Amino acid sequence: MATTPDRSATDPYAATLLAENDLLAAALRTADPELPVPTCPGWTLLQLLRHVGRGHRWAAQMVAAGATEALDPRAVAGGKPPEGGPEVAAQWLRDGATELLDAVAAAGARTPVWTFTGPQPSAWWVRRRLHEATVHRADVAVATGTPFPIDPSTAADGVSEWLGLLAARPAADAPPLRPGTTLHLHATDDGLGAAGEWTVREQDGRVAWEHGHAKGDAAVRGAAADLLQGITRRIPADDERLQVLGDADVWTTWLGRTGY
């Protein structure tokens, strides 16, 4: 009898990926698939669903193959939701996350695989796909005019994960922050501690960051959910849910040069 891979090997993000992906699937199941997504210009909700579901399988298939280079997304097996209506499409999205977790468990969470940031342990993809799901769930909320509830610790980790991806990018001629300037982000939720504060700076044309409280040229305060939406440009830079202190141009320049 075949054994089921131990998904617990991908903790601490496995259960959260399933939960967040389920919320995304549920939101898409009841929405008009042809509804435009303002925060993803040119997309409909159906295209968003395909993007996330294919992305889960894309990561899973690279993990399973021990890939040393990116898989062509057009070559992803099962990369389109099957016919059958919203229930079938929603289940296809859920199955993609399960496929990834099973692939990581079977390969070994520490087994290296290709990622955007160079070779990383295969479990790296679990966190990446978790936050892909959370940010695109915010897109669905914008498109449908519904709330975006998310656990503050998950949202705060999404901010950290996005900063980590930015820090891995090569040096730029026009970096997100001018030399010598700093940006401080501060989540106002109770209980986050140092995990809810970030100090970001320019370092040799690249992004560098660390947790902790510090005075910045600009500071942005808000709930972790709102900071996640702000830093990924899902809400405007001057949204009333965000309090911007200091030099607002630091914040707007940052956003203008950090496309998600």
SSE diagram, text form:
Blueprint: H1 14-29, H2 45-65, H3 86-107, E1 112-113, E2 120-121, H4 124-144, H5 152-167, E3 182-187, E4 197-203, E5 206-211, E6 218-222, H6 224-231, E7 243-246, H7 248-256
Parallel strand pairs: 3-6
Antiparallel strand pairs: 1-2, 3-4, 4-5, 6-7
Helix pairs in contact: 1-3, 1-4, 2-3, 2-4, 4-5, 5-6
The gross shape turns out to be globular
Instruction: Assign the CATH topology of the largest domain.
Output: Four Helix Bundle (Hemerythrin (Met), subunit A)
Q: What's the total helix number?
A: 7
Total domains: 2
Q: In the CATH classification, which architecture of the largest domain applies?
A: Up-down Bundle
Main pleated-sheet profile: 5 strands, mixed
Helix content: 40-55%
Radius of gyration: 19 Å
Task: Name the CATH class of the largest domain.
Answer: Mainly Alpha
**Superfamily at the CATH H level of the largest domain?**
dinb family like domain
Q: What's the average pLDDT? A: 95
Describe the structure.
By secondary structure, the chain is of the alpha+beta class. It has 2 domains: 7-144, Four Helix Bundle (Hemerythrin (Met), subunit A); 155-256, Nonspecific Lipid-transfer Protein, Chain A. It is 43% helix and 12% strand. It has 7 helices and 7 strands. It has helices spanning 14-29, 45-65, 86-107, 124-144, 152-167, 224-231, 248-256, and strands spanning 112-113, 120-121, 182-187, 197-203, 206-211, 218-222, 243-246. The strands form 2 sheets. Strands 5-4-3-6-7 form a 5-stranded mixed beta sheet. A two-stranded antiparallel sheet has the order 1-2. The longest helix is centred in the middle third of the chain and has 22 residues, at 86-107. The radius of gyration is 19 Å and the shape is globular.
